[in-house]
Design a protein that fits this description.
- This protein has a single domain (about 5-180), classed as HAD superfamily/HAD-like (Rossmann fold), CATH 3.40.50.
- About 35% of the residues lie in helices and about 20% in strands.
- It has six helices and eight strands, in the order βββαβααβαβαββα.
- Strand 6 (about 125), helix 5 (about 130-140) and strand 7 form a beta-alpha-beta unit.
- Helix 1 runs parallel beside helix 6.
- It starts with a strand and ends with a helix.
Length: about 180
């Protein structure tokens, strides 16, 4: 039976992003990795409620040559070790690559839905950038926006806003319950 998923952006939702010139950037190394408050508890609660907990992250610095796939994998391995996550799905491309997986395209979410038999109508994307929200909508899932005050484009439409992942849980659970009643 298909289960709902909580699709979570990585930098800015799971771990702290480094903000330079009003824009978020991923940690450059393990030394800079800081898991945000409440994230471990939120992931545990999502898993206990029967959700797949999947991180979907753009990592264009791999394509740009400013970080290696191994460095990204090391950070992801620590997150997988410390948090109740099912998987971390990475798009290593930049916009110019035209791939299907780079948010705002929904490829990472749709591929995960096929692989894990995910009920998209009961699922939610949580992100801190317009690209996350647009990818969620394009995949047919609800979206929660965590506004970090970045100096960049804001999402056009969002179903819910939250301060942190942990404060988004009531919406995520309610959305999944409503989707179950409609299905």
């Amino acid at each position: 039976m298909a289960r709902p998923a909580a699709f979570l952006d990585r930098d800015g939702v799971i771990n702290a992003a480094t903000v330079r010139n009003g824009r978020p950037h991923p940690p450059a190394s393990l030394d800079e990795l800081r898991i945000l408050p409440g994230v471990a508890e939120a992931c545990r609660r999502l898993r206990a409620a029967g959700f797949y907990v999947l991180v979907v992250t753009n990592q264009p610095d791999i394509a740009r040559g400013t970080t290696s796939a191994n460095d990204v994998a090391r950070i992801n391995d620590v997150l997988l070790d410390q948090l109740a996550l099912d998987a971390i799905l990475v798009c290593p491309h930049d916009d110019a690559d035209g791939c299907h997986c780079r948010k705002p395209r929904p490829g990472l979410l749709l591929d995960a839905a096929d692989q894990w038999d995910i009920d998209l109508a009961r699922s939610t994307m949580v992100g801190d950038r317009w690209r996350d929200i647009s990818a969620g909508h394009a995949a047919g899932v609800a979206a929660v926006f965590i506004d970090r005050g970045y100096e960049e484009r804001q999402p056009d439409e969002v179903e819910h806003r939250a301060d942190e992942l942990i404060t988004a849980l009531p919406f995520i659970f309610e959305h999944a319950d409503q989707g179950a009643r409609v299905s």
